[in-house]
Every structure is written in C-alpha cells, then in structure tokens.
Amino acid sequence: MQNKPTPAELKKGGVILIDKPYKWTSFDAVNSIKIALRVKIGHCGTLDPLATGLLICCTGEMTKQISSYQQLPKEYTGSFHLGAITDTYDLESQLHDPQPFEHITEAQIHEAAGQLTGNIMQVPPIHSAIKKDGKRSYDLARAGKDVVLDARPVTIGEFEIVSIQLPEVKFRVLCSTGTYVRSLAHDLGQILGCGAYLSELRRTKIGSFNVNDALSPQQWKDYWKPPAPKDTDIVS
After folding, report:
1. φ, ψ for residue 216 (rounded to 5)?
2. Which of 189, 220, 199 has the alpha carbon at shortest distance from 55?
3. Domains delineated in the chain
4. Which of 19, 48, 90, 187 is catalytic?
5. Which segments in the chain show pLDDT lower than 70?
6. Is 133 tagged catalytic?
7. pLDDT tens, position by position, 72-121
C-alpha cells in the first residue's frame, strides 16, 4: 500500500492513487477528494466512465508535475466482445451490425493482436475528447456531424491475449500515452472481419504505479475522517 499523506501534506503538495469506480467519471473521482479536503488537485490521464482503475492525482505544488506523469506508459486489462460493433467502440452505445464469430480461431485472434503490436498508426474514436475544428469530437458526433479524425502514432509494447471464450476475449495491453483501447478493440474486430467492441476495461498500471496500491475515493475519505471520540469513564 502506498504512503498515506495527511490532508495538511496534500494541501502543500502530494500524490495519491485513486481506484476509480465503475460508471464514475474521472472528474467525479477527483472532485470528491477536492470537496473533502478543499485542496487544489488534478489527475494524470482520464479514464472513460465505464472503465475502472488507476488515477494518479497530484495536489498543491505537485500539480506542476502532472504532465510528466501523463507521459508514462500504461497497462490495461479487460475484455473484447466479438461479433458486433458500437459507435463508441464500447458499451456506451447500442450494438449494431452483428456478424458471425463462431468460425474465428484462437490462432487468428493471436495473429490479429500481433498485427496491432509495436509502433502502429491508430485512429481515435470519434466519440472522444479530441478537438476537431476547435470543438470536441464527441460533441460533433452527438450532433450528427460527419467526423473524420487523423490516425496518430502510438506504441503497443505488449498485447497479450489472456483467455478466449468466444465471443469474449480477455487481454492485457501495455501501451504509450494517447492510446485508445476502444480503438484497439475495434481494429481487432476489423482485422478478424467480425467486428468487436470493448466490453470491460481496467487500468492496472501507470509507469511503476500499481492499482493494487490505490484506494477508492470513499476509502480515502474514510482514512482522512477524524476518529470518533472515545467514551469517557463516568465518575460517580
């Protein structure tokens, strides 16, 4: 478990690790700490609401170091679901374009993962915070606008297929900053010819920081809560 800084230490400047809960936005998780401690705080890399896992948060003077933490490589685990696609490349939108997947072999899945390993060009999801013509891409997509995003170079250091129980494929990915695992799921489905979307995602590491050393927002607030007063002896 990481060192647990006191509220006073965090107001001066510190780092805490948060395990973001499912369906919380990264802003929700960070804001809950900000409200509890009334401290300047920022996080080093956004997680989608349906993802869980590690957020590095800097407070006080340490917020100046956020950009250096953001550049660290990241590790994710999760699941891809074969046989359909979604507009957001995950479960935030409806499934469509169902395709047969039963014929896909384990060898084909491993080969497809190999094609997506190393230095690759990746097109981000249009439902992302990337700006296009000065506006967030997801705002344009939700408004029904045609959005075309340019491919960007990313590095997939490791793309391990952990287990296969069709249509679910469990994976572990070590990747550079700027990588969209949702796009990795979509691209894998395109290579296999059956479509795929991200069905589960957890960020487990950022650089040498591990989610096993993180606490949920509620656990952090419970830790900082003043201890309840002890019962005193009654003198008769």
Report:
1. -70, 160
2. 220
3. 7-71+208-224 (3.30.2350.10), 74-206 (3.30.2350.10)
4. 48
5. 1-3, 227-236
6. no
7. 999 999 999 999 999 999 999 999 999 999 999 999 999 999 999 999 99
